[in-house]
Design a protein that fits this description.
binds flavin-adenine dinucleotide; 8-stranded antiparallel beta sheet; Uridine Diphospho-n-acetylenolpyruvylglucosamine Reductase, domain 3; Vanillyl-alcohol Oxidase, Chain A, domain 3; 3 domains; 5-stranded antiparallel beta sheet
């Protein structure tokens, strides 16, 4: 009987979660002692800034060594990978050659403990190049000072406790896909969850009113890696369409859309139970019956805010195939000036497509499209229309009315026969990754009303059109992740704007950011922001998707969290009164500011209390 009880407790977690920190382990190494939330002091009594290399109370070498010993030797010094390309102690031409060849694929960035895909928020301080120019150099920038390569819960607990007790900036890197610097931080201690890849199929899982198939998943599994598990067990779990995105880190925490969003909801709608290390260093379960505040916040309330997720139990749906058909039209060749009359037909087609978007989402589908301006004021539009669980014939018939309407107005439409959606069902090579970008963009979750109301529809279409005419790439995703399709357990912190949206609209600014002066950087942003103002004007009550957003989104608390913000802030303050977890534009992040020497909105500077920064203006880093 006792054995049976023990066995059932043991199998509630992965083996790596059974290795936990105990009071006895702490011993006299008080720097890794657990925290007590009832024993904290007000924010204004805290030191002005988190410690950083060179600051007065930065841990001594001996303390880092002791930390490393307590971790079993998994502490990594945070050397920027491209340091091998620059004069200095790490210079190594062979390694630099290897790096420049491999840095064109996101796989390199994901497998590296330090770097991230989008480099400008880090400060872009050490770029991989075989031939650095005379004024190029490599500095630490927003790369972490140390990284814990976490393979056990114990190591994560130690890392959280050490950061909290030593007043360090703590960051969490899973894959490093975040676009605005949430997995970077100057002078930080980083916890790298990349290798938490365990998977367990649960044929019969029961919690609350849920009874059925589920999967226990490690927080480091990438989206593409899940497809092998799905195929093996004949199930479908939701993952990102960007295949190397972590499926259970930032994606799940911030919302998480996919090709199945209109059928099963968002990534944040999938967990039935979550394992998490909280800011006091404790390891807890959050589910519909216990730690319900955390369970609410961890599903949609953003990553890097309430704890470090180590694993989750997620719903396993019946095996679901997604078929896509690709459709395109344009104003014609970009080599010759476009006839203005033909350009108008293009925009008529643009309107027809957006009318049809409602049909797509009402049939459980999604669509992913890009519209852009090219030479000679030519315009193109390409979309993948995706429906789950349908035959090729059904999908062809489904899109035919749209194709007919586009042809009637005189557009030359190309359409590809249905095939498995390219953003669903990754093969084994999908993990190689794509080319990482280093640009900036902004998001809007456009409500259905914008496409139902004729006047609002016209205004919306004009705003979208003007942004493409201004030279931005417009990337739209049709989706309808209502609470109804999300199902049990519900009651989560997903941005309410997702629930009424039928389109996640993203505007990509292709301006090259590398090498821009702070003033030029701000100017390009001002231009993007003024274009986005038009989108905001036609959807004043709507929001934006925090995972694919503009760092400088105005009124970001409302935009990313909507009416959930106040509740989330209360949870944040009660669960993390120390503010251990910080990342830009996450709940409670308004309490702190990153001080940068060039006043750029990057993570390349000390993290300080917002109410103390006046005295720090004009500061220079200790070199
Ligand atoms: C190429 C590309 C494709 C994309 N495709 C999609 C898509 O199809 N659908 C979609 O919705 N989004 C997509 N995104 C956006 C993506 O959802 C976000 O970038 C997401 O935050 C990435 O999460 P991550 O854990 O992989 O990355 P990271 O950058 O490592 O983490 C992102 C944030 O989550 C935090 N975090 C990570 N792991 C944990 C954890 N275990 N516990 C607590 N906090 C954690 C980090 O600290 C950071 O704040 C894409 C992004 C890129 C670059």
């Amino acid at each position: 009987m006792l054995f049976a009880l023990f066995a059932s407790v043991k199998c509630a977690n992965f083996a790596f979660e059974e290795e936990r920190l105990t009071e006895a382990d702490v011993g006299d190494f008080k720097a890794i002692a657990f925290g007590d939330a009832s024993d904290t002091y007000p924010l204004e009594d805290e030191p002005d800034c988190r410690e950083y290399p060179g600051s007065d109370n930065w841990p001594l070498e001996e303390e880092w060594s002791q930390l490393n010993r307590s971790l079993g030797g998994t502490l990594i010094q945070g050397v920027p990978p491209a340091a091998v390309c620059y004069d200095g102690p790490y210079k190594d031409t062979a390694k630099c050659t290897f790096l420049t060849r491999n840095a064109s694929s996101s796989r390199f960035y994901i497998n590296d403990p330090v770097t991230v895909l989008t480099e400008w928020p880090e400060g872009d301080t050490c770029h991989a190049t075989l031939q650095p120019q005379a004024d190029d150099n490599c500095t630490q920038g927003g790369f972490p000072a140390y990284v814990i390569n976490a393979t056990t819960v114990r190591q994560i607990q130690i890392g959280v406790n050490f950061a909290r007790n030593k007043n360090l900036r703590l960051i969490i890197k899973n894959t490093g896909h975040d676009f605005i610097g949430r997995s970077s931080g100057f002078g930080s201690l980083s916890i790298w969850t990349h290798y938490l890849k365990d998977f367990q199929y649960l044929p019969q899982y029961q919690i609350g009113v849920y009874s059925g198939r589920a999967a226990r998943v490690g927080a480091g599994i990438e989206s593409w890696e899940m497809f092998a598990h799905m195929n093996e067990h004949n199930i479908t779990t939701l993952v990102a369409g960007g295949y190397t995105v972590g499926a259970f880190g930032g994606w799940m925490a911030g919302g998480g859309h996919s090709a199945l969003a209109s059928k099963y909801g968002l990534g944040a709608d999938q967990p039935l139970s979550i394992q998490v290390v909280t800011a006091d260093g404790r390891f807890v379960t959050a589910d519909p019956n216990q730690n319900t505040d955390l369970f609410y916040a961890l599903r949609g309330g953003g990553g890097s805010s309430y704890g470090i997720v180590t694993s989750a139990v997620v719903k396993a749906h019946p095996y679901t195939n997604v078929l896509a058909t690709s459709l395109a039209f344009s104003t014609g060749s970009s080599n010759v000036p476009v006839d203005p009359a033909h350009a108008e037909k293009f925009w008529e087609g643009f309107d027809l497509y957006h009318e049809f978007g409602k049909e797509i989402v009402d049939n459980g589908g999604t669509a992913c499209y890009v519209s852009r301006r090219s030479g000679n004021n030519s315009y193109s539009f390409t979309t993948d229309i995706e429906l789950p669980d349908v035959s090729a014939e059904y999908l062809s018939n489904f899109v035919q009315p749209l194709v007919d309407d586009l042809k009637v107005i005189g557009l030359n439409v190309t359409i590809q026969p249905p095939e498995t959606a390219s953003n669903w069902m990754a093969g084994p090579r999908a993990g190689l990754g794509d080319t990482p970008g280093n640009s900036r963009f902004a998001s809007r979750l456009l409500p259905r009303a914008n496409f139902d109301d004729p006047e609002l529809f016209k205004a919306t279409q004009r705003a979208l059109r003007e942004s493409v005419e201004a030279g931005y790439n417009f990337h739209g995703i049709h989706l309808k992740p209502t609470e109804e399709v999300a199902g049990y357990p519900g009651n989560n912190a997903v941005n309410p704007a997702f629930r009424t949206a039928i389109m996640h609209a993203d505007l990509f600014d292709n301006a090259a950011l590398r090498g821009l002066s702070p003033m030029a950087f701000k100017e390009t942003h001002a231009r993007l922001a003024s274009t986005m103002d038009k989108w905001r004007a036609v959807s004043p009550e709507a929001g934006a998707y925090m995972n694919e957003c503009d760092l400088e989104e105005p009124n970001w608390q409302q935009a990313f969290f909507g009416s959930n913000y106040d509740r989330l802030l209360r949870i944040k303050r009660s669960r993390d009164p120390w503010g251990v977890f910080y990342a830009p534009r996450t709940v409670g992040s308004e309490d702190r500011v990153v001080l940068t020497e060039d006043d750029m909105p990057t993570q390349n500077g000390p993290l300080c209390r917002a109410d103390s920064v006046q005295g720090w203006r004009g500061y220079k880093k200790t070199k």
